[in-house]
Batch of 4 targets.
Target 1
Amino acid sequence: MLLSPRLPELNQRDRFVKRAAASRMIYAVSGEEGLGRVPSQRHRGREVTLFWTNRKAAERWADVIARQPQIKVITLDAMLCDVLPALTRLNRLAGPDWGSDPIEPELDATDLAGRLKREVLDGFVERVAASRKVYMLDDASGPALLVSAVQSDRLLLPCWSDRAFAEARIGGPWADMVSVEVPLQSFAHKTLRWLEDRGWLVAPDHMVGPGATEIAPATLGARFKV
């Protein structure tokens, strides 16, 4: 069982989660034995794999925690779909924005994954509420849709809070699609209701893989004041 963290550790954890969700990038150190890690300060026999939201911080500690170190850039998609599940299987903890404090945060990988997913949703709501815009991919046939990774008999609509996030997904089966800007008023009152009527889901700031957030349209709509 993990010991209760101190307030500075909680603050460090929360900053890491916000920065990682906003930038969609995390940094680690890769060496001869895989991702850089250190012995847990709290749990004998367990190891803590270290991550940073700042590349320079990762570079600063690279030689300390790995032999033949290289900086590894991990997308948020890969962090949620591959890296954190692997830590869980290996019974390793995650160390967010590790530094030189006497006691650094040590997080259960599943807990960190849940916090990152919640922050992706919260960040989507905050950015859309501020900009009053949502972005989707569209072509002559209509908006881009996917089969739900959670419920294979349902479709879902991916959408994004930033045009760059949407356009980064253009390619493959979506190569001919374009990003479209939808006013929040129209998204909330038309798009989400259209999905609700069909029993489909919505994926705010959708990411590739099973780490994507999938929620009911009404649940997302309730987060906006329109």
Note: The chain has a mean pLDDT of 93.
Target 2
Amino acid sequence: MPATIDGDEPLSLWLLLRKITTLSLPTVLLQITSLLPFPLTTLHLGLHHPPLLPPYALSNLTGNIIGVMLIVGSLTSLDTLLPVYYKSKPEKMGLIILRSVVITMTIVLPSLLIILVSTKTSGPLHSILLSVNVEETLISNITIYLHYFSPSLIFILFSNVINKFLLAQDVAWLQVWVGGFTVMFHWGMLKVYVGEEGDDSVVGGDERVMERVGMLHFLTPTVEFSLRLFAILILRPHDPSTIRTPTLSDLFIPQKDVVSFTQQLVISLNGILSLSEWLYWEVLTFMISSLQDNIEISAQAVVYSLIPIFYMLPLGVAIGSGVVVGQKIGERREEEVRRCLRLTGGLGIACGISMSLFCSIFKTPLINTFTAQPEVIRTLEKIWPGVCIFIFVDQNFAVNGGILRALGLQSTMSKYILIMLYGFGVPLAYMVVIKIEKGIEGLWQMMFAPYIGLIVLIARKWIYVDITEVMDRLNKGEEGPEQNGDDRHGLLKHFNDNDSDDDKLELIEGGDVEMIDYK
């Protein structure tokens, strides 16, 4: 039976592909604009303040591990729950958001305190960085940056909440414009505020520049949050029925028609675990930094900035495909689900080939965009074949991982990541980089190996998965208008089809829910 969108109208593979890309385009652009400030700073420092590229790279990694990653992971509960409640009980969206903010703040607050109580020469952050063999001079600049950057975690949190609230209501393009303005603000401030090497406005040396970089990374999310808040309060593109302020007592009191606080906490924690591949990257970069070779750290910083940009294409394919697969699961059309999965797997291969070739063909301009240091350029040229191979593998990982999320198998994916990346990848990297002393060149010779094993496990899972069991699990065996696409996450279980007031909410068994993966 050919794939369809509505009713029994046939849908060709070309139309299915067009539907996936149409759904993906604004989300991909939004993710790119959210990501770009960090590569732009890497580019600016690499060209104008090369000595600051290593401390900035490690500052960015540290901020990700103890702040940004926790926020993004915890807020995946909103990715899962807000679209469901917008279709069923929009007046409950405020309660879901309030709970998510409380959970995320509780998780992030200890990290924020660790940063704020640390100094350049003492404190918990100083001890943590020393334990992974980071140089004292780097620790000083890292601490300076994080002291200015860390308060922005609050604005990052609330900016992401508004973003997810609007996306749940299909308000995407307005967000893209906000992101585009934020990127232009950041780029302009790099030129005007941070300044260039030899600029008379930069007084006080490297520490002063790091202060300005940290302050800029505080200002950028603040501007983004302000614009999104303006959109909510003035432009009001959302459904007014979704704005209903809950009471604090609603936070913990179980309600029969809404997911419990404990269940939402589980979703948030699973969301953080689902981003463990992001943490794997941070571990490898700190492994390179332990060699205390600033040239290799700078080269790793350039690659670390490029890989996520290439990742946006397969991420968009995964998001678009997840929507279509979810609709077909809700309609209980097994053959069409399989057809979409096969198409998505093919798109992953196409993305990998195209991006890997692009990276190989445009090697010189890509490298020269981020650095002018001859030693860093030579190091990047040595590792570039490994980078191109990894991009092919990484693109396929992104798409195959998206397939598992569309099937509600996040727990399975997390287990595979723990086995292949942490059980196999980290020990292999440690042996190659530290024990055999091959450094960054050895790292990028082996980088693709654990990912190939990971892709094989993921692909085997979705190729042989029992689609009927998946549909039963996500739809909870229920049939009716509620299951015709609107409840594709399988969170709503209707015990009484004739009395919607008695509807109850359950998490699917095992805590498997759909989440978007941000790298």
Note: The longest helix spans residues 294-330.
Target 3
Amino acid sequence: YRAGYTPAQRREIEQRLSAGELLGVSATNALELGIDVGLLDAVVSVGFPGTVSSLRQQWGRAGRRGHGLAALVASEDALDQYFMREPQALLGRRVEAAILDHENHRVLDGHVRAAAFEAPLDDTDRDILGDTALERAAELPELKHTAAGYVWAGRDYPAARVPLRSTGMDAFTVVDRSTGSVLGLVEHERAYSTVHEGAIYLHLGEQFRVVALDLEVRAALVEPFSGDYYTQAKKETMTAIDQARRTEWRLGLELAFGSVVVSEQVVAYQKKSIHDQASLDLVQLDLPQTEFETEAIWFVPQPWMTEDLDSQRRLLGSLHAAEHSLIALLPLWAMCDRWDIGGLSTNVHFQTGAPTIFVYDGHAGGVGITERGFEAFEGWVEDTARMLRGCPCLLGCPSCVQSPKCGNLNEPLDKAGALALLERMRSSR
């Protein structure tokens, strides 16, 4: 069960589960809340879902009218393993503060339209929706200004326009070429990396291979696949600083928060064995570059913090590993998971002229994730260093510095160098 299925497919599963025809269901967090599936005896969460609030929602599905069982089976993800070593950090942790960036018009516009549909918007709404809301109302063509305030003048129901899985509406359709049936939907921002030509796509436990990706009609044609490998996309990313809104001296370096422009291009994909994760082949792709503006934090380590990283590869590996581990632990401080965040590390950034680490919101316009990281920087770095120290591996593994979403296929990475950098930052507190 997942959100990418059609509504009819989801309703059928919900009804069969509620009626007791199914003894169990394997689901993404699409089944986490808001759907009546009757009385469940047990919930097994496979991997930490990203937030304590999500975990409690999942566990709360079981035992609503009697005894129930809830379990967390950790994945090899860094945050999961951190909680396995320090369970009280999870069980005693408060629910995260929700993040909302009401200055992002991609988020705000949908709320303004829906509010105006219910009642006229006037100056009294500033206390709830913020000062920017009425400015946006004046610019939206579907809203008309009347004596009572801004009212909805469109022909449709505005809340139906707002997607729950992303800030955009231009999703790609996944179509089975042999039957013409729609298997699911993929958000535009994930399409190039998940349904590119040659990608292996999973649907209801079955494997499909993408034979064509039509960018004009936004459709991926797939066919059944019985091979023993999966695919991982390789991306080239560039981050350009647009404006630094806040800069502060923190942990011995200048920490900045502001707006950036992120350019991404999927250039290849790697075939990896299902059995042992071995790399089988690297296939080149020719896909367009995408670009979006978002919010980010960035910092340049002081020269003494990296002075013993004597080769360019070791320096880049240390920065890259530090970036990955920081991204893995940011969900401890912000209501998000690592798939909501992106990053870039470079030996020499073309604007700073020095080694630089960026961590950015993965949603256009930003939604407040990295701003929360800016505010909690000291605690965030402390948790990240503790996680690296506690992982028993020597060279780095999926439980500390390797990332399942790395566009560079987790190369290069230097765990020892990353820990040294973070420890030196901590010592400057």
Note: The mean pLDDT is 90.
Target 4
Amino acid sequence: MGNTMTFTWSQQRILVLSPHPDDEILGCGGLLHKAKAAGAEVFIQFLTVGHTTDRSSCLSSSPEERHIEIKQVAEYQQWDGWHIAFPGDEYHLRLDLIPRVELSNMVEQESPLSIAKLRPTVVIAPHRTSYNQDHQAVAEAAHTAMRPSNARLRHHPELVLSYEEAADQWRYDAAPMPNLLVELAEEDLDSKLGALQLYATQIHEHPHTRSEQTLRSLAVLRGMQGGFALAEAYHIMRCAA
């Protein structure tokens, strides 16, 4: 992370693989605002959404409530499109039950926002070290879907990243140090925190990995590591120049 590079976000078509509604904001909400403000196209592929019971202030949430939240966040951040691959409870928090070939085929070619149909220049997926089984399944499916091959026959996104969430360190084999820091302006972080507020069924009071204070603290830490005020951190899977 010792070198600084310039990346032109205005020319990018970005596809984010989000296991559940809110992961895209927790992992890369600041980057999405930064890129969209520069003129990029932003698309979100959600993998699943279903009934959720947790210890948030709302205690539980329905798919209908989550759909409303998605629409609010999509409008707030001005996404160009979004899609849910496996709606309903059958695979919600059970994506690990889907054979990897089926999950990777959805990401690679079957979804309306698949890599083959959308032809994104940037793909951002969860990191495989997440403790959450859905995140692990999506990370591995993304790895398979973007395997090296003849670029004349299969679309190869030029930049493939994995995003981090504050909870990803809760493992014996925690994620290694990220090797890409994306500088954020205050308005980028404000958009990230504002979007999290719109996921009202998912946000928590501090201390929690989905609290505003945690997201701000992580942005400050990653910024300091790059010599910035604020940043988001990523792991590079592919960077073709």
Note: The CA atoms of residues 40 and 133 lie 31 Å apart.
